[in-house]
Amino acid sequence: RLHATDVTSSSFRLAWPKLLSQETGYYSLEYAPRAQPARKRTLQVSGDQTSLVLSDLAPETTYEVALIPESNVHYFPTQSTRVTTLAEEISPVQVLISESGPHSFQVSWAPVLDSVATYQVLYGPLPGNSAKVLEVDGRQNSTVVEHLAPNTTYLVTVTAVYRSGKEKSLSAKACTQKGEQG
Fold first, then answer.
1. Which of 13, 47, 99, 132 is the most buried (most CB within 10 A)?
2. Residue 182: pLDDT above 60?
3. Are 136 and 121 in contact (CB under 8 A)?
């Protein structure tokens, strides 16, 4: 049976049982997005192959795939399968620090993606290794970090935790204001 493995947002590997050999024929492989059958593409695959990677695919798209054994010896029925690519996993591309005061600042990031379950905002003074973590809902794109020391440089890392379990991070530096002169 034709089936797919190693599915990503832009590719997947197709595998099938050995039906032909190089002498007895070749395969025609047809694939198209289910929603746009007119965009069908056809590949010719050597009869001795039993797998192939399709790439340059659209993310979060269901593809209809048909493998047609073109044999000069036997008739083989067409094998077909349906494969859905994963959502594209983009790391946060911007981390912005704003509204900086002596004891707090706001961290915001973009883009906000449906495929993100939560964001983790890790922050700690530089130099140093006493970082703290804030968990932020995946639908939010900013949070306020409080209880900070004045006149201090902080390293802020925003990590997108995807529903698939993957993580992508981006860091920025932030400085708190000097405290009030008492």
1. 47
2. no
3. yes
